[in-house]
Amino acid sequence: MSNIAKNYNRRKISFKYGKGSYLFSTDGKKYLDFVQGIAVNSLGHANPKLIKAINNQSKKLWHVSNSFIIPEGEKLAKKLAKKTFADYVIFQNSGAEATEAAIKVARRYFFSIGKPKKNRILCIKNSFHGRTLAAIYASGSKKMTEGFGPKIQGFDHFEFGNHKSLNKKIKKNTAAIMIETILGEGGIKVIPDWCLKELRKICTKKKILLIMDEVQCGIGRSGDFFAFERSKIKPDIVPIAKGIGGGFPIGAVLMNKKVAAGMTAGTHGSTFGGNPLAMAVGNSVIDIILNKKFLNNVKSISEYFLLNLNHIKNKYPKIIKQIRGRGLLIGIQLHKNQVNFIKKLTENKLLTIRAAENVVRVLPPLNVKKNEINQALKIINKVCSEIQ
Fold this sequence. Notes:
By secondary structure, the protein is α/β, with parallel strands linked by helices. It has helices spanning 36-39, 48-58, 71-83, 95-112, 133-139, 142-145, 163-169, 193-206, 257-260, 276-289, 292-315, 339-347, 370-387, and strands spanning 15-19, 22-25, 30-33, 88-92, 120-124, 155-158, 174-180, 182-183, 189-190, 209-213, 237-240, 251-255, 320-326, 329-334, 350-351, 353-355, 359-362. α2 (48-58) runs antiparallel to α10 (276-289).
């Protein structure tokens, strides 16, 4: 009997080791892993460069308090600031921590300029911002919040794609709008660039902050370093995690100079956030992903994958309703519940994971090879042919 709590509905598979795009189970089977820890292993399993970074740093220093300067963290923050809109970074350990920190940064900013009542955060209904207490109420999902009362106050919600709903919900006490650029758990729904531009205009006009949650879609997953980059907008705050650690727990909240001014000494902290070991891995991941050839390859292989998935959709229109996504954050929306489809894919040694709206989430590593994409396409086509 397992002594681990039952808060996960775990599949009856366990793994001995992984290499690149593949996982090898304890019973000797080889699986093509297009879950990758839910978009965490951005460079696949056991990446040699990340192993080297961990090994080298582990021989020197694992952890020191944030009461001291951590050179590895300074180095990573500088790279992130140079590449992005951000002037400052606070390091965390996970996506939920990063979104919680983003909420704190937004509220603290208005407090610091003498507007403490301007503290409400406006989010998309049934979005996803993490599993911590404030994050589940930010998500606005009844399923996620059930049994975790009393309700955490300070969040309002609008319907996805409904600009009238959004404008109605902005009040005098609204501090920020927080959205995922691409809704992950919500069904791989890409917010169009024109919507993002309009959102930035609204926030600027209303003098409120824009928080873009890029925990799942950021760090190259969309084909750009950040998914919002195509729209040419500049948010005020961006929480990140998942892909930046390549499998090692790292999160961060990026912010511009204006909002960072409120985060004075003692306003936020994290015991493990920004530790030297995590920062060494993060630096290695960023050095690889920021290579222009790397991101161009993500775009190229994504175009190939999406094109061929749409061919399969056209071949089996009664099974596949829509192909969604951008880059290597892909959703196959089915007409029926996706549980059996995912089970069939697993039986054929392809690992995927579910999202809302009957979507099968497909998340290869960013350095996936074309022959591995072809293998996945072959399995998806086979499963469609078997269940039609």
